[in-house]
Amino acid sequence: MPELPEVETIRRGLEPHLIGLTLQSLTATDPKVLDLSARDGKLSALEGQKIESVTRRGKYLVFGLEQHYLVFHLGMTGQLTLRDTHRQDADSFERTVTGLEWCEQHAPDRHTHIHIVFGDGRQLLFRDIRKFGRVYVLERELGHLLAFYKLHHLGLEPFTSEYNLKAFLAAFKNRTLRLKSLLLNQAFVAGVGNIYADEALFEAGLHPARKASRLKKAEKERLFEAIHTVLERGIKFGGTSFRDYLNSEGEKGTNQEELYVYGREGEPCLKCGTPIVKTVISQRGTHFCPKCQPRHTGSARANK
DNA sequence: CGTTGATCCTGGGCGC
DNA sequence: TGCGCCCAGGATCAAC
Fold first, then answer.
1. pLDDT tens digits for range A49-75
2. A:156-185 Cβ neighbours of strand B under 7 Å
3. How far is the CA of A240 from the C1' of C11 (A)?
4. How far apart (Å, rounded) are the C-alpha atoms in residues A2 and A248?
5. Is residue A2 among the annotated active site residues?
6. Which nucleotides in chain C have some atom under 7 angstroms from a protein Cβ?
7. DSSP H helical segments within chain A, as ranges?
8. What pLDDT score does A71 carry?
9. A139, A64 in Cβ contact below 8 A?
10. Cα Dmax for chain A
């Protein structure tokens, strides 16, 4: 599940290689991953254009071309990797991607849906087993990109000046849902997904089923800091490779070794030893420590 | 307008 | 060994 730290890791891996390269050809082998804006030959309209920028907004990766924006969303199992067709790897390294298996290069397989070929023999491959990912093509006008972000209801962008406490507190207005659901809503803070939502709530010591409208100001401030902390840590360790995530070089991240609650059901809390509990909230697996993240606060609280 | 739940898609894990 | 079943989940959209 590529979330903000995973997409940012991919972005950082691609940017130095792709700036200035010319798109020679773009081929889609499965129209399912094409948004309407990228169908009917609109992908091939990008041929001949240079890549001028590689940016990110939430979980969206944005290639700024001379006349268009090419936008990727990796969904759950999307992978965007760079392949050098001139490089001759040993046979043992030339293999298709199978889950988390390490490989030196990705040979295209039946899950590779988009091939982008550059003039210098390199390729950018989009592979997505479950096809929840999408590709979009926009006209190159800042207004169109901003409209795209608005259309997809993207909220506060972490690591920018817009992610500040005042705006964060304001984003709680008229929110009555549970904290887990709020964090998964991209209109709240853009880029947080299931893994980092659980980690942020643990970091803040907040129970995932608590209602957003019932938080004290101090608790909101803790969540504000916690989201920043867990996303920053995720980037530091190159993303979380719990299932299918690989960076632009086809390598795993190591943040899965830094997780406190996600995927640790039944294992002892790393802070207090209490077994981590897994439940379902908003149809999503949700992990938390029942002692570090009490459901009810108040005078009778048993912790601490 | 906010919130909930169904839906898409495939591989992997499990029970028998 | 193989079959069927169920789970994982980001974003969208219908319905309340």
1. 999 999 999 999 999 999 999 999 999
2. 174-178, 181
3. 21
4. 12
5. yes
6. 7-12
7. 4-18, 142-151, 165-170, 179-184, 194-204, 217-236
8. 97
9. no
10. 68
Q: Could you identify the residue written with the tokens 């209490």?
A: A274
Q: How far is the CA of A233 from the C1' of B15 (A)?
A: 39
Where does chain A show beta strands of DSSP type E? 23-28, 51-57, 60-65, 68-73, 78-84, 94-96, 105-107, 112-118, 122-128, 134-139, 277-281, 284-288
Contact assessment for residue A37 and residue A225, using Cβ atoms and an 8 Å cutoff: no
Burial class (CB in 10 A: 0-12, 13-18, 19+), A249: middle
pLDDT (tens digit per residue) in A214-232: 999 999 999 999 999 999 9
Residue with more model confidence, A68 or A105: A68
Contact partners, residue A194, CB within 8 Å, separation at least 6? A1, A3, A184, A262, A284, A285
CA–C1' A130–C6 (A): 16
- A75 beta carbon to strand C: under 7 Å: yes
Return the ∠ at Cα A179 (arms to A209 and A267), rounded to 5°. 55
d(CA A132, CA A111): 12
A39 C-beta less than 7 Å away from strand B: no
> How many secondary structure helices (H) and strands (E) does chain A include?
6, 12
| Contact criterion met (CB below 8 Å) for A43 and A137 | yes
Q: Which of A3, A6, A199, A203 is catalytic?
A: A3
pLDDT band at A86 (very low <50, low <70, confident <90, very high): low
Query: Taking a C-beta distance cutoff of 8 angstroms, is the pair A294, A302 a contact?
Result: yes
* A97-112 average pLDDT score: 57
| A115-170 per-position pLDDT tens digit | 999 988 788 999 998 999 999 999 998 899 999 999 999 999 999 999 999 999 99
